[in-house]
Amino acid sequence: AVVTGASSGIGKSIALMYAKEGASVVAVARRKERLDELVEMAKEYKGSIIAFQGDVSKKEDNEKMIDIAVNTFGTIDILVNNAGIMDAMEPISELDDDTWFHLFDVNLNGPFYAMKKALNYMLDKGRGNIINVTSVGGLFGGRAGAGYTSSKYALNGLTKNIAFMYANKGIRCNAICP
Fold first, then answer.
1. Which of 10, 82, 92, 166 is the most exposed place for a label (fewest CB within 10 A)?
2. Could you write out the DSSP letters of every residue in the chain?
3. What is the mean pLDDT of the chain?
4. What's the maximum distance between 2 C-alpha atoms anywhere in the chain?
5. Catalytic residue (choose from 113, 148, 153, 166)
């Protein structure tokens, strides 16, 4: 399994639970010291966690984390796109371009690159599971600012499309919307 945003919160809990249940996990986050703590926490579990310090807003880091899983463990069965960032509740008239693009790089483009890379391996073996942690902000227009809401709406749409396009190929794609 590859889990992004694994240094805290939901991602940390997912990575630890997978390792506890026996999975081999690549935990991805920007903060190396938190990843090292996570690896240490899982030492006594049936599975294992290896850390990859990466930035999901970068295409190359998304592709590298998938390659690390395949090169280290021989395959990728599960991809959890959990990493995400929030905005400051700005309406569109107050939203600057840099914030807009950064929200989309982290919340949409990162999962896009990770899923695209992982799907190639999953298609070869005829199975796989992708979980995108989106948000109720991507279901309702008034829960966050314009940038965050738009990025999560887009991720929900991409999730639905992948679920439809790959269901008959043994690959599931689901969203969790906290």
1. 92
2. -EEESTTSHHHHHHHHHHHHTT-EEEEEES-HHHHHHHHHHTTTSSSEEEEEE--TTSHHHHHHHHHHHHHHHS---EEEE----------GGG--HHHHHHHHIIIIIHHHHHHHHHHHHHHHHT-EEEEEE--GGGTSTTSS-HHHHHHHHHHHHHHHHHHHHHGGGTEEEEEE--
3. 97
4. 51
5. 148
Packed helices 110-125 and 146-166: angle between N→C axes, nearest 10 degrees: 10
Active site includes 121? Answer: no
| Token code pair at residue 14 | 């997912």
Q: What is the pLDDT of residues 3-55, one digit of tens each?
A: 999 999 999 999 999 999 999 999 999 999 999 999 999 999 999 999 999 99
